[in-house]
Design goal:
The protein contains 6 helices and 4 strands. It has about 120 residues and is an alpha+beta fold. Helix 2 runs parallel beside helix 4.
Length: about 120
């Protein structure tokens, strides 16, 4: 498991945005992963997807790494942001936009606004 922790640490620290998910950004394998990937894809966020279904050590390791029991998990600039419910709330409140801007992550602001309008 130490190897998994090292691999996870390398991933989250070497990439600006990383989503640990079930499936891939183009083919999510659960509804929660699909929702977060859908938000990021729609907003045009460049991110690395890590399919935890392909590696049992990573699947358990990411839960231990973040001390968060569920997947998906979003990391921005090495920091754990949250899972599906938190990302959904942050998107709808505009907090995700603010955090991405503060971290220098490019995204489509008009798309983010459309998500909020559609959920108002």
């Amino acid at each position: 498991m130490a190897d998994a922790k090292t691999r996870i640490d390398d991933m989250v620290k070497s990439k600006d945005v990383v989503l640990f998910m079930k499936g891939t950004k183009s083919m999510p394998q659960c509804g929660f992963s699909s929702k977060v990937a859908g938000v990021l894809n729609y907003m045009g966020v460049e991110y690395t997807d890590v399919n935890v279904l392909e590696d049992a050590d990573i699947r358990q390791g990411i839960k231990d790494y973040s001390d968060w029991p569920t997947i998906p998990q979003l990391y921005v600039k090495g920091e754990f942001v949250g899972g599906c419910d938190i990302i959904t709330e942050m998107t709808l409140s505009g907090e995700l936009d603010t955090m991405l801007e503060a971290q220098g992550v490019t995204f489509d602001k008009a798309a983010a606004e459309k998500i909020r309008e559609a959920n108002a």
